Amino acid sequence: MVRFLLLTILLVVVARLFWRLMDAVMAGARGVPGPGGQRREPVKLVRDPVCGTYVPPRSSLSLTSGGSTHYFCSEACRQKFRR
Ligand SMILES: [Zn+2]
């Protein structure tokens, strides 16, 4: 009887872990941030024309000149490019 009880508890724990995992996988597939996890998606990187570093456009400094936008890894690179 005790054995059966333990087995049941074990099954419940495993099932819970499994569903939590499935939830995380599904959330990841939809692009929704999972519990405690950051949103992960392939980020298209752009090249800093000054130092050649690849930076994500969303979190980098930009400068629009001559109809095209350039992205920089830092303010120093942007300053250099302006000159
Ligand atoms: Zn740079």
Question: Could you please describe the fold and organization of this structure?
Answer:
The chain has 83 residues and is an alpha+beta fold. Helices cover 45% and strands 17% of the residues. The protein has helices at residues 2-30, 75-82; strands at residues 46-47, 54-55, 61-65, 68-72. Bound molecules: zinc ion. Zinc ion is lined by residues 48, 50-51, 53, 72-74, 77.
Question: What is the compact description of this entry?
Answer:
This protein has 83 residues and is of the alpha+beta class. It has two helices and four strands, in the order H-E-E-E-E-H. The model has no long low-confidence stretch (mean pLDDT 86).
The hetero molecules present are:
zinc ion
Shape from CA axes?
Answer: rod-shaped
**How would you spell out the order of helices and strands?**
HEEEEH
SS elements, strand count: 4
Number of domains as seen in the coordinates: 2
Tally of separate helices: 2
Sequence of strands across the biggest β-sheet:
1-2
Quick one: biggest sheet? 2 strands, antiparallel
End-to-end gap: 81 Å
Low-confidence region ranges? none
Proportion of helical residues? 40-55%
Provide the β-strand percentage band.
15-25%
* Structural class estimated from helices and strands: alpha+beta
Mean pLDDT: 86
Name the features.
rod-shaped; 4 strands; two-stranded antiparallel sheet; alpha+beta; two-stranded antiparallel ribbon; 2 domains; 83 residues; binds zinc ion
Chain-wise SSE layout:
Elements: H1 2-30, E1 46-47, E2 54-55, E3 61-65, E4 68-72, H2 75-82
Antiparallel strand pairs: 1-2, 3-4
